[in-house]
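seq as requested:
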Amino acid sequence: MNVKITLNRCSVVRGALLIAAVFLLFPAARVEAAQSTWDGGGADNNWTTAVNWVGDVAPSAGDTLVFPNGAARLVNTNDFSGGTAFLGLIFSGKNYRINGETIVLDTGGMTMTDTTGMDTISFGIKLPGARTFDLPNADATLQFDTVISGPGGMTKTKAGILILKGGNTYSGATTHNGGLLQVDGSQTASNVTVETTARLVGTGSVGGLTMSGGTLDPGPKDTAGTLNSGNFTSTANCTFVSQLNGPTASDQLSVTGTVDITNTKL
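struct tokens:
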């Protein structure tokens, strides 16, 4: 009897070790985030209303939200609890105006693929890390009328137009490497770097400004005005555009910190 009991225990121990080894070799599959597509088919404008989404299933935290062409209720409301995290937002439709509670951009960013339209965001965005705002089409505009906050930053890519009008408090870097970025609000906690063929315009305020390429054109697009910055650094690869009004430049950059134009061709 003692021998049999000892053998049974060994079998149990060996079986447990074998199961543990299997889990180490073949860990449980990661559950991928879902993609929820807006259709506006409900009786209200709310995100939590299931019938407003394809398949009549409301999104969950961690999902990617898609706003396509042809949907109803282009004006809609994020009525999830403030600070709900979503993986990212994709706009393939135009003329959306979305308001409501602040969301957290979990690990993804925002993409706008419509070729001609403008979408307006009026709910807060929190950036826990660096996020990409991808606007591939030159005639597409994504406008933020609200506050972007958090320790993260943003990279604006491709040929589209991104307009920032809020009193932003996010503190990570802003990298602008394509298309047009218009800053009409205040975001003095974020240092901005303009690269390659990108164009920076606006009448707002940014942190430190580094022009490693591209074009600086203070004021609104194609009109006169003043853009404000902290420290300013410019290289030989950038262009400064200023409309003139007699001996006075109507387009101006107002710098409150240091100015380094050592390598700039004037």
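Helices lie at 2-25.
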